[in-house]
Amino acid sequence: MKWSLQELKNFYRKKPLTFEQHVDASGVMEKDPEIRSIDPVYVEGHADVTQQKATFYLTIKGKMVLPCASTLADVEFPFSVKMTEIFIFDPNYTEFEDEESLHKVEGHYVDLLPVIEEHILLEKPLKVTAGDVTDGPAPQEGKGWQRITDEDRQNRVDPRMAGLAKFFDKDNE
């Protein structure tokens, strides 16, 4: 979802710019490793273009997979976001409405993908839980962790005390 400034100023200033398409927003998984997967998101909207700015009115819909807070099982989380973003072409333009949704264009292109990814990350909840936590067994291990039982914990020797355990074994012989 990228347009050149020349294209926006010359062509879409005279006629409306409307769009609807699926966009690959998998870049959010690099920014937030808790997001396990995300389907291509559906983006629809339109833009009002003047010589100084372009105002985009967007609706983003999609699904992301997040870990359940109780069991770490996959949970699909659907989201829908409505947003308005303003891209300023002229750095000297001074009519600012909303500072949060205002972007100064650097270079010769308006790219909506970083803004879309930012809003998807803002939609991600702090935690989700599966509707029925008995859907299946919880994972027994993951990246950098492993589930241990109380029995495993009691039989395991603390590595800091391994030398001391050998000392008592010699006394018993």
Overview of the molecule:
With 173 residues, the chain is of the alpha+beta class. The protein has helices at residues 5-10, 28-31, 113-123, 150-155, 162-172; strands spanning 2-4, 17-23, 37-38, 41-49, 53-67, 74-88, 102-104, 109-111, 141-142, 145-146. Strands 2, 3, 4, 5, 6 and 7 form a 6-stranded mixed beta sheet that branches. The longest helix is centred in the C-terminal third of the chain and has 11 residues, at 113-123. It is elongated and about 90 Å long. The termini are far apart. The model has no long low-confidence stretch (mean pLDDT 81).
Brief rundown of the structure:
This protein is an alpha+beta fold and 173 residues long. The chain has helices at residues 5-10, 28-31, 113-123, 150-155, 162-172; strands spanning 2-4, 17-23, 37-38, 41-49, 53-67, 74-88, 102-104, 109-111, 141-142, 145-146.
Key structural traits:
173 residues, 10 strands, alpha+beta
The main sheet comes to: 6 strands, mixed
Order of helices and strands: EHEHEEEEEEHEEHH
What Rg, in angstroms, do the CA atoms define?
Answer: 26 Å
What is the tally of helical segments? Answer: 5
- The end-to-end distance, rounded to whole angstroms, is 75 Å
Structural class of the helices, strands and pairings? alpha+beta
Bulk shape: elongated
Secondary structure: number of strands = 10
What's the structural blueprint in terms of helices and strands?
Elements: E1 2-4, H1 5-10, E2 17-23, H2 28-31, E3 37-38, E4 41-49, E5 53-67, E6 74-88, E7 102-104, E8 109-111, H3 113-123, E9 141-142, E10 145-146, H4 150-155, H5 162-172
